[in-house]
Amino acid sequence: MDRRDFIKTTAAGAATAALASCSPAKKTPQAEGGEMEIRTNPRNGDKVSLLGYGCMRWQMKKDEQGHDVIDQDSVNELVDLALSRGVNYFDTSPAYLQGQSEKASAIALNRHPRNSFFLATKLSNFSDWSREASLQMYHDSFEDMQTDYIDYYLLHAIGRGGYDAFARRYVENGMLDFLQKEREKGKIRQLGFSFHGSQPEFDALLATHAQYHYDFVQIQLNYIDWRHADGVRNVNAEYLYEQIDKLGLPMVIMEPLRGGGLSKVPAGVAAQLKERDPDASVASWAFRFAGTFPGVLTVLSGMTYREHLEYNLRTYTGFKPCSEEEIEFLDRMARLMREYPIVDCTHCNYCMPCPYGVDIPGIFRHYNNSVNCGHLPQSHEQREFARLKRRYLVSYDRAVESLRQASHCIGCGQCKVHCPQSIDIPAQLHRIDHYIEQMRRGTL
Amino acid sequence: MLRKLRIILAALVFAGITLLFLDVSGVLHAWLGWLAKIQFFPAVLALNVAVVAVLVVLTLLLGRVYCSVICPLGIFQDIVSWIHGRRKKARFAWKGELKWLRYGMLALFLVALVAGVQVFVALLEPYSAFGRMTQNLLGPLYGWGNNLLAWISERADGYAFYPREVWVRSLPTFLIALLTFVLVVVLAWTGGRTWCNSICPVGTILSFFSRFAMFRPVIDADKCKNCKVCEHKCKASCIDIARHKIDYSRCVDCFDCLDNCKFGALQYRFAWGKSTGASPAAVKGTKAAQDSPSNTDAGRRNFLAVSALFGAGALAQAQKKRDGGFAEILPKTRPERTVPLTPPGSGSPKHFYDRCTACQLCVSACPNGVLRPSASLEHLMQPEMSYERGYCRPECTVCADVCPAGAILPLTPEEKTQVHIGIATVNRDLCVVEADGVSCGNCARHCPTGAILMVHSVADDPQSLLIPVVNEDRCIGCGACENLCPARPLSAITVNGRSTHIIG
After folding, report:
1. How do residues B455-497 score in pLDDT, each as one tens digit?
2. How far apart are the C-alpha atoms of B175 and B177, rounded to whole Å?
3. What are the structural domains, with CATH classification, of chain A?
4. Nearest to A203 by CA among A230, A243, A233
5. Cα Dmax for chain B
6. Distance of alpha carbon B40 from its chain centroid, rounded?
7. What is the DSSP string of A142-171?
8. Option in B315, B320, B439 nearest A411 (CB)
């Protein structure tokens, strides 16, 4: 089936998509105002909600000592609501939210029967690749989440550091063999990996399927990365999707919203999306797009606030996949967005903490917001330049403490290896700093 | 009528100058800066002949209206005295001139000025004393008020206000300002214009001219019923009803006497060449105002030592990679500077310190947190520059714009970037390239004149990391490198002042 045909098939509606690997099985636990879209895992028959919960963005608050801690009350509330509306896939990692995500997510989830949800976590052995440290991390996950088994276990962010890093993190230390044995014992129900990287690494990785028999793959898919990944450091999701689909493996989708980048789009793009469907939220287009493809088992969304969850429930209950025409429309929007000087940061915080104290995601978020709102001062000859400059500089100080601003990036590059989007972080920070310096000096 | 006019003008001037010292937005200087430039002593130091001449002629013409309407410290004393006067009437009575104190103070002031002991000049000069009080005591309150507005503004998504850091720039100066405040308030509360007529050197200088003023309040002995209301109302205690005389050397033309005389016996009129007031009365044993606030020892903040303890482990990375959170950032400590850094436009530290009256106007105006009063005994209260909180940004000329004393002469941003006020030197042991083994170059990246070059840390080894070196000839001493250096608490690149600023 070539891509055109496939899209036509999808366009025909959800029912026709039964041809592909994840068959929609519309049996939801209960639903108000529609039913949660459910996909069936072709490998083991798991009935998984198309909306999955990404546990990387829980709400944080300050404790008595001023440290960031997860707001457990809000996690409990959101988990309860999600489960009640049919969301049953929860994805976390030992690295998320300064290492607090696994515990906090599990505290909320374990107030419900263990068989009412699927738990996904990862072997996030980024800094220490030794077998001991990796084993420790694996066992800690069981301890921290108070569970006897993990439904979906992932080798975390393969592709960063090339195939070589994969070999050293999982093969040479024997961890992959160990994890396969754990799968046989039933401690891990499904074993897979999440991928961020370039095409040769991806091809090499997929070739190891014959040996390790992965059960699923987690990829980044959204209407920009579908055909407009930068091609050097990231691969078009369309290619990833087709290759994985050939192997009959179900896919878990991450970054369907590109870390919020597809909800905070440039004003011109937002206007076009709204013109087509005034009632649909800007973000809902991205979520519909990601769920359109039948090989997708679940679409992860890191929903921090109740409103995020409620909006997504609206999209995924009584789910309507994108038509072929809509997919082409979104492709035009993607091309348009590529014209803006936006930094592709998804605020995943993998780069943090910067050893020199720079607030990397904060700087990118502020810059992107200014681009998207059309508030970016461009030249001192521009109308209202002084007002835009003041607005930019004041809002910059509000968004990022002055000691953590871009001027303090020394370019050591320690962040670069951690970025799943392969952003050249120092270069981008220096670009923004140079821009601000020109603005301050009035030489823009 | 005249009294009301005096009060209205004084209120306007006082509000303007106070705002000038408090303003954090940098907008008011363009509108109110002239209020600082018409102050007598700063104008003398700035060799502003026109202002000095106008003030002298004004005094010869109308008497010491300067003290009632233009001098902010004088107006401040009037306010304090007025508050007390609302509770207690008839507070004053004729007192003789405290000549020994008055001329002693003036002599001390002049000797200090000539000898270059600027501490005494700064302590006694009224406008500067007022500036210090406002900047140190009222400034923080104003700053917090501004920050409250900024907090509201942020929530309302407005950009009118933004938060400014409130900090004590120098403890000794803060304490001196506090002592001056207490002294002035006590003197004004008990004795009205005692400060102006016994201590203030500017008041004494103006008194030489006001004795001969063309217009002055005159008592008509025929109409006077000797009720002494005017004498009891005179803040300067300069009306002697017993002899129907007024000491014009001390009268500040407040016109309280005129408005309070029910019999029209007092008139402000042309009276040139007439006998000039009171015969010197015997100095009674009135309490002599002691004015020398103790100079607190120039103790450096001892957090330097404490933070040094934390220094070592500060930037160490966590063992296990966790996502998110911030690395701790240590505050910078001040490097030793053998020659003080003074702003571009000041010519040289010597020129600067000879003219500066320590009014703190530049300190409160500096938007980059660079200027603060010195704690050294030699230049106590006079500003110096340091780069722990910011650096002297190339586009900013605020301090030169506001200085009323000519200690910092005005220049354009283009001229400013040509002025070499200091030289940076690199301490390779502290540089993160050597210490952490990472590439950096943040100093070179931010140097506005390209004075910092990145060279191989091992000569002739193209693989070695690049490390900064300073081309002394191009360095202007702005401190961008020192401020943005990642090495903490001590920067690896620091700026020392030049004894003479070089242009070009």
Report:
1. 988 888 888 899 999 998 889 999 999 999 999 999 999 999 9
2. 5
3. 3-337 (3.20.20.100), 360-441 (no CATH)
4. A243
5. 101
6. 14
7. HHHHT-S-EEEEEEEEETTTHHHHHIIIII
8. B439
Q: What's the pLDDT score for residue B201?
A: 92
Check: CB of residue A9 under 8 Å from CB of residue A16: yes
Does residue A366 carry a pLDDT above 70?
A: yes
pLDDT, average across residues A395-414: 92
Residues of B in contact with A433 (CB under 8 A): 445
Q: Is residue B323 part of a domain?
A: no
A62 in contact with chain B, both atoms CB, cutoff 8 A:
no
- C-alpha distances (whole Å) from A1 to each of A5, A7, A216, A306, B81 are 6, 10, 21, 40, 95
pLDDT value at A382 more than 50:
yes
Residues of chain B scoring pLDDT < 70: 273-321
Q: CA B400 to CA B166: how far, in whole Å?
A: 22
Indicate the pTM of the whole model. Answer: 0.68
Q: With contact defined as beta carbons under 8 Å apart, do B334 and B308 qualify?
A: no
* Residue of B323, B389, B393, B432 to mutate, testing the A interface (most A Cβ within 10 Å of its Cβ): B323
Which range marks the domain in which residue B240 is found?
2-270
Q: By CA distance, what is A388's nearest residue in B?
A: B159
A13 touches chain B (CB under 8 A): no
Q: Which of B246, B270, B294 is the last residue of a domain?
A: B270
Which amino acid is located at A156 in the chain? H
Contact A295, A248 (CB under 8 A): no
- Chain A: nearest CA to B416, how far in angstroms? 13
Count structural domains, chain B. 2
Q: Any idea which residue has 């009891």 for tokens?
A: B232
Residue A136 in contact with residue A127, Cβ under 8 Å? no
Instruction: Give contacts of A 332-361 with B, CB under 8 A.
Output: 348-350, 352-357, 359
In a domain, B253, yes or no: yes
Residues 6+ apart with CB under 8 A from B357: B41, B42, B45, B118, B121, B122, B125, B127, B128, B405, B407
ipTM for the complex shown: 0.73
| Dist. CA B373–CA B383, nearest whole Å | 4
Tell if the CB–CB gap between A355 and B442 is shorter than 8 Å.
no
Partner A contacted by B414 (CB < 8 A)? no
Nearest CB among B154, B323, B486 relative to A95 is that of B323
* Model confidence at A184: pLDDT above 90: yes
Please give the residue of chain A at the shortest CA–CA distance from B314. Answer: A355
Query: Could you say which of B219, B250, B270 is where a domain stops?
Result: B270
The answer to whether the beta carbons of residues A56 and A346 sit under 8 Å apart is: no
A411·B440 Cβ contact <8 A: yes
Would you state the pLDDT for residue B154?
Answer: 86
CATH number of the domain that residue B455 is part of:
3.30.70.20
Tell me which residue in B154, B321, B446 faces A398 most closely, judged by beta carbons.
Answer: B154
Buried b / exposed e across B33-68, counting CB within 10 Å, b at 16+?
Answer: bebbbbbbbbbbbbebeebbeebbebbbebbbbbbb
Q: Do B325 and A68 touch (CB under 8 A)?
A: yes
Q: Look at residue B360 and tell me if it is in a domain.
A: no
Q: What is the separation of C-alpha B275 from the centre of its chain, rounded to a whole number of angstroms?
A: 40
What is the torsion angle, in degrees rounded to the nearest 10, for the CA atoms of residue A278, residue A283, residue A286 and residue A288? Answer: -60
Residues of A with Cβ-Cβ distance to B328 under 8 angstroms: 357
Q: How far is CA A83 from CA A52, A96, B458, in A?
A: 10, 21, 61
Query: Does residue B324 sit at the A interface (CB-CB below 8 Å)?
Result: yes
Cβ contacts of B317 on chain A, cutoff 8 Å: 353, 355
Q: Classify residue B441: in a domain, yes or no.
A: yes
Dihedrals phi, psi of B307, to nearest 5 degrees: -65, -30
**B484, closest residue in chain A (CA to CA):** A408
CB-nearest to B325 from A128, A353, A437 is A353
CB of A440 less than 8 A from some CB of B: yes
Q: Does A328 touch chain B (CB under 8 A)?
A: no
